[in-house]
């Protein structure tokens, strides 16, 4: 358990899809500057839990507490407005738009030219650069389509967007799954930077190497219930695997 | 904080300028080709003949207007096959309404009412297309193909199977007269084109159109109402077709259901030659303008140098295929993702 009061906590969350009990009384919390790994085999309920926390699904039972008070998110926009950003595996970047346009997608600033409002691309690029600077990421150009960036750079743009919009909790679904080894290192470094900046990070991963390298705490789900929770310092991969397979 | 993460420079740059310039280059080469040919074979200038330039301008108007609406739809990842007959439908509606209104409220009033009613009528097929595609998830190719038939039949029924002649001075002025040596119909079209350029390049509406074509999920997650956007895009496309139909009525002093019949493929070709991808996500208003000009110059130029008119189809077809090939080659070489 973390010393700090949790920033976001899910308590007693249950969710049923038709005849399938996907989650049953699940607990998950994250404190500012804490990295929590959410582990579990396929079908354990990790993604369902994440989608409840980020407003995609609503829980059948249980409650979400954010900064100490109960909260409900009717949709992902509400969760995002509250400061909970989710980065999905496919990143949700528009490949054909540049870095600035992706960071500001849906929230574009305007400037006036001869009284006519136009999208302020220069500001979007400059601000995108600033938010990536905070993450110690430098791109050589910010005006190229993100399609031309590498996997790690794209991951950085997605994270940069979350940071720019003042995410206080960042949820990442398999952030390194699609990346080569050097790029995985970069994303690990990014998560460390976020942690240093006081962001609470929840990340789903199958990769025990990543989990043990970066997390402070590991929450293991098995068949929709909490199978265990360990401080990363005080456990080892064998124990986590045992919890994951329900041993 | 850790040491700065070294990240390599993207290399997409070099190709980008060439891509936007290649359609212009091609247009210039075409003009030079026709100039040389007509000097050699006919001993006259092609390029420095005001009548030729005016004719090409007027000739470009109708397919260009259809192509402009098509540009937005194609960028968003869709296609609108119904524009040709939406144009004819609007032309017939404009002719009927003006003929009915002119004796009552005079030419100016009839012009205004006829134009507005025709535009409103042309919005209907677009609205239905948009709702079918956005709400009922019908693929754009099928939905708008259905509308192609519906608009076609409705237009011919309204026209009683014939052309509706109309004589409305303001509309005829726009369709046939010049202002300062430039055909009024060209001036109207250029003004409209500039407005659409602003909409596509400088507003959120345009930005979201690109985002929708690039990654629909990304647009949804960014909080963009993609259903409403989709409906708006098909309505915009059919309004462009409607304007084209109204101008047709002014140019030929008649509304005809088949006004836009041959123009559907030209409109899609202009968008593609102008650099848009049929998979969505790219394209520009000025690219489409160049695409439409290229088609018009080929068609007009071949007639001018006395080549059998059927070669037009062959030439335009080859240009379409080449431009798609160039686009795909360019994507493979320069624009592809540079993953590890």
Explain the layout of strands and helices.
The complex is a heterodimer of chains A (247) and B (340).
Chain A: E1 8-17, E2 20-30, E3 35-39, H1 46-53, E4 61-66, E5 69-71, H2 76-82, E6 84-87, H3 99-103, E7 110-113, E8 116-119, H4 121-134, H5 151-164, E9 169-173, H6 181-196, E10 200-204, H7 208-214, E11 217-222, E12 225-231, H8 237-244
Parallel strand pairs in A: 3-10, 3-11, 6-9, 9-10
Antiparallel strand pairs in A: 1-2, 1-4, 4-5, 7-8, 11-12
Helix pairs in contact in A: 4-5, 5-6
Chain B: H1 13-42, H2 50-75, H3 83-134, H4 140-159, E1 164-165, H5 169-176, E2 178-179, E3 182-183, H6 184-202, H7 204-214, H8 216-221, H9 226-252, E4 254-255, H10 263-273, H11 285-304, H12 311-335
Antiparallel strand pairs in B: 1-4, 2-3
Helix pairs in contact in B: 1-11, 1-12, 2-6, 2-7, 2-9, 2-10, 2-11, 3-4, 3-9, 5-9, 6-7, 7-9, 10-11, 10-12, 11-12
Can you tell me about this structure?
The complex is a heterodimer of chains A (247) and B (340). Chain A has helices at residues 46-53, 76-82, 99-103, 121-134, 151-164, 181-196, 208-214, 237-244; strands at 8-17, 20-30, 35-39, 61-66, 69-71, 84-87, 110-113, 116-119, 169-173, 200-204, 217-222, 225-231. With 247 residues, chain A is of the alpha/beta class. The longest helix of chain A is centred in the last third of the chain and has 16 residues, at 181-196. The radius of gyration of chain A is 19 Å and the shape is globular. The relative contact order of chain A is 0.19. By secondary structure, chain B is mainly alpha-helical. Chain B has one domain. Chain B has 12 helices and 4 strands. Chain B has a two-stranded antiparallel ribbon with strand order 1-4. Chain B has a two-stranded antiparallel ribbon with strand order 2-3. The A-B interface holds A 76-77, 80, 88, 90-97, 101-102, 105-108, 116-119, 136-141, 144-145, 147-153, 156, 179-180, 182-183, 186, 189-190, 192-193, 196 and B 1-13, 16, 198, 202-204, 207-208, 210-211, 213-215, 217-219, 221-224, 281-282, 335-340.
